[in-house]
Each structure stands twice: as C-alpha cells, then as structure tokens.
C-alpha cells in the first residue's frame, strides 16, 4: 500500500531480559503483522551499545549471527545490516510519545 504510514513512537522497553531494558527506542507498529509487536526503527546514541548487545544476543540465539564473539560483532556493528525486523512484544513497551499516528490511504 503506497499511501500507508505506520504508527511511530518513542517507547521505553522493560522486562525483555535484554540489554535494551530501561532504554527508550523509536518503534513502529504495522498492520501487515496485525499489530502483533513493535518493530525497532531507530534509537539515540546513548542506547547504541545496549541495542548492539541485544542484537548480538538475539541473532546468536536464532543461529543467524555471522560473528562468534561480541567483540567481533562490535567491530562490524557500524556496517551491520539486519536480516529482518527486530520485534518487541507489545507488553514490553511503554509508549512515551507518539511521533506519528498510523495513516492509511482510505483515512483521507
């Protein structure tokens, strides 16, 4: 859908067990997955290390990480490209600020 814009928020993460807990990240919510989870979109520099560690942990657990150690992963972090969406369960996000409401073509 070319005229679709997802909901975008700043949300505080909690109770995931990952290093991103306690950090506020920029997240999106999409209709294509029936609004089942928040999708990581961006983050401020102060959360960069926590996001990197979280991505390393979750990619390693999923068998998708190209690097054997966090140190090796950190060396390549700036050029790292995700294999897909990083999702966070709805119940683990407290909405701090809505940056954009969802908009669909037929909402006009």
Question: Could you name the ranges where pLDDT drops below 50 across 5 or more consecutive residues?
Answer: none
Radius of gyration: 15 Å
- Tell me about the largest β-sheet: 5 strands, antiparallel
CA(first)-CA(last) distance = 14 Å
Order of helices and strands: EEEHHEE
Give the helix tally: 2
SS elements, strand count: 5
Beta-strand residue percentage: 25-35%
Can you describe this structure?
The chain has 108 residues and is α+β, with helices and mostly antiparallel strands. It is 19% helix and 29% strand. The protein is built from two helices and five strands; from the N terminus they run βββααββ. It has helices at residues 48-61, 70-75, and strands spanning 7-13, 24-29, 37-43, 87-89, 93-100. A five-stranded antiparallel beta sheet has the order 4-3-2-1-5, with no helix packed on it. The longest helix is centred in the middle third of the chain and has 14 residues, at 48-61. It starts with 6 loop residues before the first strand and ends in an 8-residue tail after the last strand.
């Amino acid at each position: 859908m070319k005229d679709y814009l997802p909901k975008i928020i700043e949300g505080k993460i909690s109770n995931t067990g990952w290093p991103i807990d306690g950090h506020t990240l920029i997240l999106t919510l999409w209709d294509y997955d029936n609004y089942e989870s928040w999708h990581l979109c961006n983050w401020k520099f102060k959360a960069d290390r926590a996001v990197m560690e979280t991505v390393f942990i979750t990619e390693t657990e999923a068998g998708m990480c190209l690097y054997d150690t966090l140190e090796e992963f950190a060396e390549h972090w700036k050029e790292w490209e995700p294999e897909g969406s990083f999702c966070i369960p709805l119940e683990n996000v407290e909405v701090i600020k809505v940056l954009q409401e969802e908009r669909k073509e037929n909402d006009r």
